[in-house]
Amino acid sequence: MRQIGLILGCIALIVLSAVYCLPNHPSAGNASTLDAAVHIGLFAGIGLWFGWFAGHRARVFLPLFALAALLEVAQWRLGHFPHVEWRDIAANEAGLGLSWLLLWRRASSDGGGAASDEPVDPADG
Predict the structure, then answer these.
(1) Which of 43, 85, 91, 103 is disulfide-compatible with 36, CB 3.0–4.6 A?
(2) Model-wide pTM > 0.70
(3) Distance CA 93, CA 91 (A)
């Protein structure tokens, strides 16, 4: 099940990345608070998905943190946006950080939890 979960997550990231790079992709635009909440929620969901199926260790999240930033840069370059949206990068990273914290806390309280078969070490990279 873990391998299927990871494959589905990777397919979803490919689709998300393509949508992100469309010119003027649908974003909340003028509603900056709603836009930030959507970014936080989206990347929290991504982090929870990968953390659940691949383990919640830091090494799983490092590529996701990089992707969260690079998608905004790619959107600017490929989607013809006027600038990199730094606020969106921060919201993306906050969502991933939230998901990692939730998984880490759950695993700590479960003594290892369902997210990983290994002991919890949040500093493990």
Answers:
(1) 91
(2) yes
(3) 5
